[in-house]
Amino acid sequence: MIGYVVYGRGSFDQLDEILAPHRKEGAPMIFLLDHYFEGKELMSRIPVKGNDKVFAADVTYEPKTTYVDQLANYLKEQYGTVSGIIGIGGGSTLDLAKAVSLMMNNPGSSADYQGWDLVKNPGVYKAGIPTLSGTGAEVSRTTVLTGPTRKLGMNSDFTPFDQIVLDPALTANAPVNQRFYTGMDCYIHCIESLTGTYLNEFSKSYGEKALELCRKVFVDKDHWDDESDDQLMMASYAGGMSIAYSQVGVAHAVSYGLSYLLGTKHGIGNCIVMDHIEEFYPEGVIEFKRMVEKNKIEIPQGICKSLSDEQFDTMINVSLGMKPLWENALGKDWEKVMTREKLRELYEKL
Ligand code: NAD
Ligand code: ZN
After folding, report:
1. Cα separation of 342 and 329, whole Å?
2. Fewer CB within 10 Å of terminal CB in the chain, N or C?
3. Whole-angstrom Cα distance, residue 329 to residue 335?
């Protein structure tokens, strides 16, 4: 779990005070700022002191192990150690910050730690400040990375942030489509968690709240307002808490294959898959389609049209490798339900 949580409009301005007790003599605070904010007003509000440094996090692609290693190695060479890593941005920047913090205190490459509970040492102090709502990356115990052989998180007890600052005002100017795709990540987390076999009361309590908030934002309202940003930020938090004690399911397992082969981004990839899996989530998919229509969003079609057998096989291998996700969605005998042939048929529809 996260050690410290601050929530509220304008709470970004408490950052100086929040970081003060964590500053170590001579060791800088490193701010990883989503490149979207380079040169923007938010950048000038970062409380830079002494030899602190602000790096623009390049999130053109979702985080790769090579990028994490490059940043961590640079920081180790340059400063020995740092006081902390502060991620400010969407899910990609938050994941990058978590991973770089861990790699400051763990040997080798981040690719060595893709999996469950492989990380050996706690990272340096890390704080996360989301500027998009939906992924739950601000609360989760994973950091999703694309490595040389797989796309898989560094899942560990050392992965969660020490501190998060939830300031809904930071999400205000996100483009409509991006806000929807990332918001739907949260909606899909809820559907997958609440219908999954791993569900327990902990996950259910958070999942139901997150779902209620998603509906307020994407179903009930006719236009976006400040309250929508407030609600979606809490939906993301609660949705993340829900999957912390359960798992995601079919949409994520299939979307991981797309992202590994085609580089499809997490939020949009989940939406592309969700559009075609009414067999597994009948009510969730109907409601999803209603939200797509109401919010006037286009979901890409035909993205697997011209792929080769080999490419389909790659996606199928990546997807079927996500065993806990399938087991959560379909139960212990999931391999009998989701055969390679069935998964190929599904990919062909996307
Ligand atoms: P993102 O971080 O990939 O950002 C998408 C785009 O939005 C980028 O171009 C970014 O620069 C821009 N952006 C960010 N904030 C903005 C703002 N306020 N206004 C305008 N543009 C803004 O998007 P995301 O959907 O938040 O995150 C997806 C990533 O999160 C993926 O890498 C995925 O693997 C990861 N993820 C992690 C977890 C986890 O538990 N760790 C869970 C789900 C997803
Ligand atoms: Zn997700």
Report:
1. 15
2. N
3. 11
CB of 99 sitting under 6 A from ligand 1: no
pLDDT score, position 209 = 98
Tokens of 236: 């993301």
pTM to 2 decimal places: 0.97
Cβ distance 134 to 186 under 8 Å? yes
Nearest CA to ligand 1 atom 39: 137
pLDDT for 151 equals 85
| Strand partners for 85 | 30, 126
- Residue ending a domain, among 171, 195, 210, is 171
Tell me if 244 CB under 6 Å of ligand 1.
no
Residue listed under structure tokens 């050690």: 3
The contacts of residue 292 (CB under 8 Å, 6+ apart) are 271, 275, 299
For residue 270, the model assigns a pLDDT of 98
Q: 238 with 344, same domain?
A: yes
**CATH code for the domain in which residue 317 is found:** 1.20.1090.10
Q: Which of 241, 16, 11 is nearest to 130 (CA)?
A: 11
Query: Across the strands, what pairs with 48?
Result: none
- Count how many domains the chain has: 2
Token pair belonging to 291: 């939200």
For residue 343, the model assigns a pLDDT of: 98
Q: 12 near 44, Cβ under 8 Å? A: no
| Closest Cα to atom 10 of ligand 1 | 36
| Residue 207 and residue 303 share a domain | yes
- Summarised one tens digit per residue, pLDDT across range 222-255 is 999 999 999 999 999 999 999 998 999 999 999 9
pLDDT in tens, 170-198: 999 899 999 999 999 999 999 999 999 99
**By the 8 A CB rule, do 82 and 103 touch?**
no
